[in-house]
Amino acid sequence: MSLKSIDIEVFGRFIRVNCPDKNSSDLYYLANILNKRLEDLKEKTGVSNIEQLIFITALNICYELEIEKHKSVHCIKHIKSRMLVLNEMIDSSLNSK
């Protein structure tokens, strides 16, 4: 997998990053999402300090990620329990014949 050096713009600043060739369009897309979030936060809070906006946004993203992790763990536990019930039903059905 070859790396490509690309420039992305985040909140008016250009940052050179290395990423796999096949992921460059994803990185541009995500940079646009980040820019939108920063603009929304700036508008909502009135904060104009770029560093502060970036840290607040990073904290918000980390919080959202943790929420999604907990949801995933809950879903996996639910799926596992349902699979056990189905497995028991199949075993019971096969044993009764």
TrEMBL record:
Keywords assigned by UniProt, alphabetized: Cell cycle, Cell division, Coiled coil, Cytoplasm, Septation
GO cellular component: cell division site; cell septum; cytosol
GO annotation terms (biological process): division septum assembly; FtsZ-dependent cytokinesis; septin ring assembly
Places the protein is found: Cytoplasm
First-listed, main subcellular location of the protein, grouped into a coarse class: cytoplasm
Gene3D superfamilies per UniProt: Cell division protein ZapA protomer, N-terminal domain
Leader sequence segment: none
Family matches, as NCBIfam families: PRK10972.1
Family: Belongs to the ZapA family. Type 1 subfamily.
Assembly notes: Homodimer. Interacts with FtsZ.
Primary role: Activator of cell division through the inhibition of FtsZ GTPase activity, therefore promoting FtsZ assembly into bundles of protofilaments necessary for the formation of the division Z ring. It is recruited early at mid-cell but it is not essential for cell division.
Protein name (database record): Cell division protein ZapA
Organism: Buchnera aphidicola (Cinara splendens)
Gene: zapA
